[in-house]
Amino acid sequence: MKKRMLAALCVFCFAVSSLSAQGFHYGLKADLNMFKLDGEGINPNYTLGGRIGVFATYDVTKKWGIQPELLFSQVGPKRADDFSARYIHDSNDGANKNIKLSYITLPVLLRYNINKMITVNAGPEYSYLFYENDNLLTYNRSAFKRGNLGAAAGATLTFDVLHVYARYVLGLSNINDIDDRYQWKTQQLQVGLGINFK
């Protein structure tokens, strides 16, 4: 796990250092993350989480560019009341209702600058689960797969050194690691603020 996180950080830093100064910006960002996990045995309502991390933008042309990010994300889905009925042979009857999942997330987005203020972006997002706090299953088994691939799309409003953004991320991976009967897929709505250092 630590090796993968270090490798992702090294790739990000190398990409940042290899870009030319013109059209290149970087900074910090944070957002509120409304997280939903769809699937049998899980409460289908949105829950509030958060993300924080670093980003870089590089405009290849006046209109088009790329935006990689490296983020720490924490979300909290909830166990549904029928979880034990769905997973009779695996469930822990005394499991907590609240679940905490922590991810390292790497979106790589394509940017289109409508004008100097408004940008739309879209692209893939990969999340790696490095910590989970749940006791859903017996024998301390994990209920969640480590990797989650998603598709992200959103818009950004830039005000000099500050920008605000909204984004939707649709999970494409089944993150249910209990069995193959039911699929668990994520949805996320994010509203955040970024600070450009350069």
UniProtKB/TrEMBL annotation:
* Domain of life (superkingdom): Bacteria
> According to the UniProt entry, where is the signal peptide?
1-21
List residues of the Outer membrane protein beta-barrel domain.
21-175
Lineage of producing organism: Bacteria, Pseudomonadati, Bacteroidota, Chitinophagia, Chitinophagales
Gene source species: Chitinophaga polysaccharea
**Xref: SUPFAM superfamilies:** OMPA-like (SSF56925)
- UniProt keyword Signal present: yes
State the UniProt keywords alphabetically: Signal
- Its name, as the record gives it, is Outer membrane protein with beta-barrel domain
